[in-house]
Design a protein that fits this description.
Blueprint (H helix, E strand, L loop, with lengths): L1 H29 L8 H19 L2 H16 L8 H11 L4
Helix pairs in contact: 1-4, 2-3, 3-4
Length: about 100
């Protein structure tokens, strides 16, 4: 019984660490707005890197779909406000799993 409680606490702790990382990575994506004109060019570097990171953080089909969506969202001008990492975390933690 005690093992179950410890495993549950570790699982919850790592779940919220992943959320903190997702929030941080979304914040990095927002930073391109702080540099007028130059910010959109930084997205050319950030978009593939963010797509790779999200596909590694969330395995399987969710990671692949999120990676494609993140790349498109980051590479297109004006869409950086979408918190893709956080939305993916919410989806992975609050949807019913089969």
């Amino acid at each position: 019984m005690a093992e179950l409680v410890v495993n549950s606490a570790v699982s919850t702790n790592s779940k919220y660490r992943k959320l903190a990382l997702c929030l941080f990575l979304d914040f990095i994506g927002y930073l391109s707005y702080t540099i007028p004109f130059l910010g959109e060019f930084t997205d050319v570097i950030w978009a593939p890197f963010a797509a790779y990171l999200i596909s590694q953080m969330f395995k399987g089909a969710l990671g692949k779909v999120s990676g494609v969506f993140t790349f498109i969202e980051e590479i297109l001008p004006g869409l950086d406000f979408i918190p893709t990492f956080t939305i993916t975390w919410l989806y992975s933690n609050f949807t019913k799993k089969p």
